[in-house]
Amino acid sequence: MLIELQLKARSIPYTHVLPKVPELAPRRSSNEGEAEVQFNMRSPLAQFVPNLCVQASDMLAGPAAAAAEAAMPNIRIEPIKWWTVDKPCQVHTSVMLKYVQPPLRRSEEGGAGSGEGKTIMRPSEKIVYDTATGVISFWSGEVTECVGEFLAEWERVSKVVVIARQG
Questions:
Q1: Which residues, including other chains, have CB under 8 Å from residue 150's CB and lie 6 or more apart?
Q2: Exposure winner among 31, 91, 130, 141, fewest CB in 10 A?
């Protein structure tokens, strides 16, 4: 309800959608802490809690509108960790990009983009990019501010997306 109120306050229309069915065998990761990135923290009841779907053209208007063209039409907003008692509920907002290019590999230096099979890039604590699927995920630890946080983070990311599309 808190997420819906934020969307209504910004006049952003939304619909309720069923969550994606979680993987039966979660992917394992060599990087510690990537379990959250790969959605291994699902409650068995998560399939009964609807997600929100908003149109990219509605959500990404304003200063970041130039990058909205690079996004697929739907943006998914998913409450997570709502079932935990000791941790606050979080919100995961995902945007799939239309044009996905494999990341450039650095020459034998290591670092971002290196390593065979590495598809997850985490440019910040709140942003995760899956190079294989072209999905940018935004994490918010504050349900009451998740829409504003997403829009602020998207504005930063959108500058990179616009530059990448021109390159």
A1: 77, 91, 93, 138, 140
A2: 31
